[in-house]
Amino acid sequence: MKKLAWLLSVLLSWSFLSPPARSQNLFAGLFRAASDAHAAWITSNWGSGPESFLSQWAEFERNGLRMVDFETYTEGAVRVYAGIFRAGNDGHAAWITSNWSDGPDSFTKKWEEFEKGGLRMIDFETWTEGRARVYAGLFRAGNDGHAAWITSNWSDGPDSFTKKWEEWNQAGLRMIDLETWEEG
After folding, report:
1. With contact defined as beta carbons under 8 Å apart, do 65 and 84 qualify?
2. What are the pLDDT digits (tens) for 71-129?
3. Closest among 175, 111, 113, 99 to 138, alpha carbons compared
4. Could you tell me which residues come within 8 angstroms of residue 22 by beta carbon, excluding any fewer than 6 positions away?
5. Taking residues 51-63, what's their average pLDDT?
6. What is the rounded end-to-end Cα distance, in angstroms, of the chain?
7. What is the mean pLDDT of residues 171-181?
8. Using an 8 Å Cβ cutoff, are 144 and 171 in contact?
9. At 108, is the secondary structure helix, strand, or coil?
10. Tell me, what's the pLDDT at 73?
11. Is the separation of the CB atoms in 18 and 12 below 8 Å?
12. Whole-number pLDDT of residue 167
């Protein structure tokens, strides 16, 4: 049970194919003991009206909650957005865009800007919207050591994901989020 206390509360969802070619969403949640304020909001309405994801997110922030996990998935042809919120009054930001690295509003430039401002990415998500890949990052205040590694190489050679993971683990860095996706 003590090991569970160190895990971040994370909502995960994924789809897998079950026989024959029938897709089904699965949901997994990690829980830990806590007594702080918290909330979750799950809806297919991104930004229209008071019940939208964006409106509820803003309301939670006004009430001292910060999103610590963001997920998105599809139910049939409908995109659903899910957020897990915990108490917090620290600096925070989020950036969601389909522009990875081109110009001042790209994901990588905003990431760099947020880090220079003392924010650390705590959650990263990516998905496709039509033909575009979308990137989302949640950031919270921090001045601790941190790193990120994105590669298609899981375990082959010195630049593989598993080698970086091992190297950074030995340097005192612990993974707090893992995202996988298919390119191409």
Report:
1. no
2. 999 999 999 999 999 999 999 999 999 999 999 999 999 999 999 999 999 999 999 99
3. 111
4. none
5. 96
6. 41
7. 93
8. no
9. helix
10. 95
11. no
12. 94
Helices (H) and strands (E) in the chain, counts: 4, 8
Contact 65, 88 (CB under 8 A): yes
d(CA 87, CA 120): 17
Helical (H) or strand (E) element with 66: strand 65-75
Q: How far apart are CA 89 and CA 176, in angstroms?
A: 20
Q: How far from chain centre, in Å, is Cα 1? A: 25
Token pair recorded at residue 90: 């620290």
**Spatial distance between the Cα atoms of 14 and 24, rounded to a whole number of angstroms:** 9
Residue 96 buriedness (CB in 10 A; 0-12 / 13-18 / 19+): middle
Q: Report how far residue 17's alpha carbon sits from residue 74's, in angstroms, rounded to the nearest whole number.
A: 14
Instruction: Tell me how far apart the alpha carbons of residues 32 and 117 are, in angstroms, rounded to a whole number.
Output: 30
> Cα-atom radius of gyration of the chain, to the nearest Å?
17
Token output for 103: 């110009």
Query: What are the structure tokens assigned to 30, written together?
Result: 């990690």
Q: Tokens 């922030």 appear where?
A: 61
- pTM of this structure: 0.84
Tokens (6 digits) for 80: 């659903």
